[in-house]
Amino acid sequence: MGVSLDILAGQKVLLTGASGQLGGALARRLRTAGVMVHGLGRAAGGPAPWHTWPAPGALGRLLRDEGIDQVVHLASPIQLGADRGATAALEEGVLTRTREVGEACLDAGCALVHVGTCDEVAGGPAPFAEAAPSAPISAYAALKVAAAAHLRFLERAHGLRLTLTRPFRVVSPGEPRGLVAEACAAALRRLPLRLTRGDQRRQWCDPQGVAEGLARCLLLPAGPHPTLHLCPGEEAAVIDVVEAIFDLAGAPPDLILRGALAPRPGDATRLVGDDAEARALLGPLPARPLRALLAEALAEAEQRLQTGTSALPPPKTDPSNFGLSSTFDALGSGSLRIDGPSSARSDLRATGLQTTPSEIEQSPTESSVPNPPLALYPLDRHEDARGALLKALPHAITGEVYAVELRPGQPRGEHLHQAAGEWFCALSGAAWLLARAPGTGAEALVRLDGHQRAFVPAGVAHALWAADGQPALVLAGADRAHPFEQTAPFPLLAGRDWPDLPAVPR
Q: Which CATH superfamily is domain 319-489 in?
């Protein structure tokens, strides 16, 4: 990649956070240079040899016993945003751990490369110079500033061999959270994605380029060195990145709800780095085109979704992410009911939704389905003296389309499609649609009567039956082709009372 790492061959380098996206890329790069990579984390799961965090004060002994030459400290919890309450939750993982790593490296005679965040200076003018004064825009960034200050103290007062770095926004395939992951999830599932105006500009960096920069930091002689910005990538607006992902996925751009969210307090309008010091010390870092990075992220997300190993996040848990607030204003009916576990419910009266704190805090790795378990939209309906025209499907779909005849008292469905979502709208009569997310128990019951359409994502169980004791005809369309064997039975109705349906025994 332009700079040889051969001089590192035979060294032992310990990576904290080695099981993460950036840590994994760095581990692979170092191994190609003959470095023996050790991983350190809370639990097993990274590269071998792997170590779990020792008791406080014992990390220095581990470094000495293993003969570690250098440490790259990537591990850190991340929580962006201006929430003041985040400080207490993040302090141990960000500040206390960094102090512990710094003290251990000093005791064991190891050099340390510390990975900070571009948010440390994001409150200042862009592009951010490497020598810019600290201007954190989140509790997370403020703790990173404090951690870096303590390491500088150890360097100046006690001789710690130190290099501080600040990567900018890294686009990593398989990342479980963040804008790119959420946009991939929405585009692949053909679901709406709520955004601010999306005018914020970011530097979208190649993880391989950032990993190369961290690897080259291990070549530096003893310092002191300036803080180095690692930002090998293109500058682009948030909306441009989202539109590119939807274009690559072949998803309708009208699902991007630009301006649906208010600007976030303290959000930087431009997050772009000046990396003059890094270029002088490390040389230019490789960077692939942004569209290629997004295509790689989308392909990884689609593969995980198809193989059932998806770590894609659900769309934002704010119920209005699904257009429900506007739907209820338009319908004025409150016909949607969301139920979850019976304890600790919070009534979201503005939308008629009910959810629980446990559902809001759900990890994206626990379930790949959204919450609430369906999306409801007004149906485009045009009437004149000749009759009515319904725009039943919002865009072209690649799956099969069915006309489902419903007879009173005879439910259909009670199954889930593992690989495809499904659209529903009533062409004549009225019908009830019940959906339940198996991973969370979140449940929705909606009435379809020719004035709305509903979307049930892949992996959500659902059932359909006639309303008002009258037959109904419902149009159902899968958003993508899927094999029949990926449809699994899922009982939904037994043991409870449902409108317009005789009691189903347990």
A: Jelly Rolls (2.60.120.10)
CA distances from 212 to 3, 25, 372 (A): 9, 9, 41
* pTM, 2 dp: 0.65
- The one-character DSSP state at 501 is B
Please tell me the number of Cα atoms within 13 Å of 411 on its side-chain side: 21
Q: Let me know: does 449 contact 500? Beta carbons within 8 Å.
A: no
Confidence band for 394, pLDDT divided at 50, 70 and 90: low
- For the chain, domain boundaries: 6-178+205-236+273-291, 319-489
43-61 per-position pLDDT tens digit: 655 566 888 888 888 999 9
- Would you call 328 helix, strand, or coil by DSSP? helix
Residue 384, token pair as written in the block: 């004149």
Examine the pLDDT at 261 and tell me if it is beyond 50: yes
The answer, yes or no, to whether residue 151 has pLDDT greater than 90, is yes
Domain at 6-178+205-236+273-291, CATH class: alpha beta
User: Residue with structure tokens 């585009």?
Assistant: 187
Give me the chain's average pLDDT, please.
81
Half-sphere exposure of 224 (CA within 13 A, CB side): 11
